[in-house]
Amino acid sequence: MDPIFLLIPAALLVGTSKGGLASAGSLAVPLTALLMNPVEAAALLLPVFIVTDWVSVYLYRRDFSPRNLKILIPSALLGVVIAAFIVTWTSEAFLLIATGLIGFWYCLRAWLTRPDPSPRPARLVPGIIWGMLAGITSFITHTGGPPAQAYLLPQNMPKLVFAGTISITFAAINLSKLPGYYVTGLFEGLNWSIVAILIVTGVMGTVLGRRLTMILPQAAYVRVIQVLLFGLSVVLVTKGGADLIG
Fold this sequence. Notes:
Elements: H1 4-18, H2 28-32, H3 38-59, H4 66-86, H5 92-112, H6 124-141, H7 145-152, H8 159-183, H9 192-215, H10 218-245
């Protein structure tokens, strides 16, 4: 099979996640890793993440939670700095499993308890903790979504505000990774023609994701995000467990 037939769906997943269907994009790196080393896969997709991030920032420029951004972005950037120091001795398999368990915990709590639809305030200390975890896991494994969603989803904010807050947060996180990837030479040897094709595909996916977010009713949107998060958690725990055993 021509690698492009797996790379294009991966870029489309990145785009739809940036358009509002959070968690879908985190499946892109495991999918691309079927073809290449996971580190190479992450480097190949980072330009796609960054460009689609800023397309989504434009699309959601009027829909976001200022307080959540003030809490999440600084703490997530601190998490990125921490991850840069601990990445050499941190077990990626353990981190994948831990991230997946966070997703399981949130989904099971949401599905097994009586839902409370009333909005909840953004709390500072939990936000700092979840933001740091999002930064750490995003830097090392490109899977920062579950910690951020575990913090934001219980606030029951409108779907567009949720999508915009997630998009802007990860636009800042992914942009902060760029110097580290460049300095370590991870961009050397990339086929930039393929990267350009993937970026165009990702932008198309971003517009599609935004459209689907607009169409879906609030309750259905939350359910879709929860199902995507649960599916991602299954993938993360399975991959982490396989890496530990293997």
